[in-house]
């Protein structure tokens, strides 16, 4: 697991660009005991994700960041007709995944997207390999801000909530590790924070493109992806 993104994003919230979340409303799972005593096991991750969306209501603002290992598995469900065009499910890997299993995108969507009501906002950042469509959201955007991947209007994974997801890379790519003063850092998390530090007020498209530029400037070829639960105007200001 990458340790620094958790601390860096938290510090960024507190001092660099106030996202408005109270300390008492922030839960951290990490394998670094200096930051949290709660390990990101499969059971703990699922439990905390359910807690995040429990009792969510209109005008609530939620944020979830995952920085760690990601992978892919063969999709065994019929959803490959719609969301899984590559025939694979994207996954995140808890610290105990070898014993308890990975968490697939279908389950992530079921836990944190499907329960949300209309008018509730959830912003998600995944800094891991193969993460392009790891929330199974229906609309993906290109560099021009237009929808690249459209949805089937009858898809069961459509959601009335305002869910926006930024991934570290495409589904077929790896997510690189950067080094800030020595310790390993997820390159996406580092570049995302750098992009917003340089220009705190940006549109959704600007955040996508500037994060890509930061990564390219460091020599990384991973391409972050922006997707949403329903069509959005990517020229609107990025908010969490």
Automatic annotation (TrEMBL):
GO terms for MF: cysteine-type endopeptidase activity
Keywords: Apoptosis, Hydrolase, Protease, Thiol protease
Coiled-coil intervals, chain numbering: none
GO cellular component, one term: cytoplasm
SUPFAM superfamilies reported in the protein's UniProt record: Caspase-like
Gene3D superfamilies tied to this protein: 3.40.50.12660
Statement: the UniProt record of this protein carries the keyword Hydrolase: yes
Family: Belongs to the peptidase C14B family.
Protein name per the record: Peptidase C14 caspase domain-containing protein
Organism: Ephemerocybe angulata
